[in-house]
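Internal ticket #5521
Category: modeling
Description: The requester needs a full-assembly model to guide mutagenesis choices. All entity lines are attached below as received. Residue total reported by intake: 337.
Assigned to: D.W.
Attached entities:
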Amino acid sequence: MESELQLIGTEEKDILQEIMNIAFGNAAAELAQVINIFVVLSVPYIRVLMARELPEYIKSEVTGCDSVSIVEQDFWGDFQGNALLVFQSGAGRELAFMLNGDDGIFEPGVTDRFESEILMEVGNILIGACVGKLAELLGDVIQYSPPKVLIENHANDALPQNFFDASCSAIILKTMFRFNDKDIGGFLFLVASHESIGWLKGALAKFMAQYDE
Amino acid sequence: MRISKILIVDDSPISRRMIKSSMPKESGYEFFEAGDGLQGLEMFQEVRPQVTFMDLTMPVMDGITSVQEIMKLDETASVVVLTADIQAKMIMDAYQAGAFLVLKKPPTKESIQDALNKVEERES
């Protein structure tokens, strides 16, 4: 099993946790506004791993469901890397039906396409607003690639072992979220380069300095 | 009424520090801190602060429940909800629970000062 990486200290982790909490709350509000659904958030938690340990970590966290859907988006600024929003099995279908209304009946084949589109849209909003707010609070400006979506891949090989640069670090924001009354859960992962971690440590110190004056 | 006792309820020690640091300097406030909604409720009962700053997403007891329980103890209590979850429904739920004000995280010196002024105006 993966081990916690000591790239950032306990206090830095606490600061990052609070900033990610603010960022994800902001993202949830944006999503609620755009597609009119209420997002119930759980207490988030942060951990830092080597990126190569991420596939194994995802597998261990999604026990009980065979497959996952992943929305992936690259971002770059002083803080750069990939954001991955991992939805548990069935999330795309649930969201597709929820947003299509109670009488939503899809033609065969339409569900898959709509599911993919809705996951991409939800992922794009959540990742964009979350990473955007994180960057704003830390004084960075971020650009994004278009999102990519991987639908219902088996949890065991959702992410190939060589998907990331082995030297990258993965910052895991684990927060369970529910849409309206549906238990559609997921995790957000940010995979950052070592150079970004160096920048991040400085930015976290600067962020807190405004409160310690 | 002059504010002398302030209770801060938040599971994040960093967030509690940010809120305290945003308070006006040399104000002579006495601060009390709790790490979840239940601890906050117990501390409210014990110290009877003039203002309580309350987070919403917390373990053990969430902020909405804690505000509701505080209002049962003292319906005139001034609870200022300070939250990252700024969805319209959450803000409405906080007011329905009895919150006096809802502020968006992160706190700023201005937003905290403004909240304290409003509490003092309300009490005078």
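Resolution: model delivered.
Comment from assignee: Chain B has a mean pLDDT of 94.
Ticket closed.
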